[in-house]
Amino acid sequence: MLSHPAHAIALGFGSGLSPKAPGTVGSLWGWVSWLLIQQQFSISSQVWIIACAVLVGWWACTVTARHMGISDPGAIVWDEIVAMWLILFMLTPSGFGTQLAAFVLFRFFDAVKPGPVAWADRLFKGFGWRGGWGILWDDLVAVFCTLLVMALWRIW
Length: 156
Prior knowledge:
Layout: H1 5-10, H2 22-40, H3 43-68, H4 78-90, H5 96-112, H6 115-123, H7 128-155
Helix pairs in contact: 2-4, 2-5, 3-4, 3-7, 4-5, 4-7, 5-7, 6-7
């Protein structure tokens, strides 16, 4: 993890090295770190943090996947972290119950990959910029699905 700065980022500063459920651990790390970001930064700064995290994450995931020799390693969890940031940003303000529901929904969409998430997962495979984007893309589609379900739940 410490052999290259991209590895530390892509591996979620160690959260992706969990021997069990690294995606869930990365998502939890995203949730906890978002609570700190939300307290310390203005809304406009939060937007910039998320945008930069996507761009830096694209680079970090591309480099790390290439160095690991696997197109989408489970240990890369930056995609889950950024996804949780985006979900929680879009749901602000929200209480613990709403955040927990969003976390569970996101984990469902990310792990099971129903419909559009499976399509997104297949769309960008391989190495290089395409593979790095693919690591992030299916999680961004899972974010959309999570937010759609949350919105439908709220208006119901």
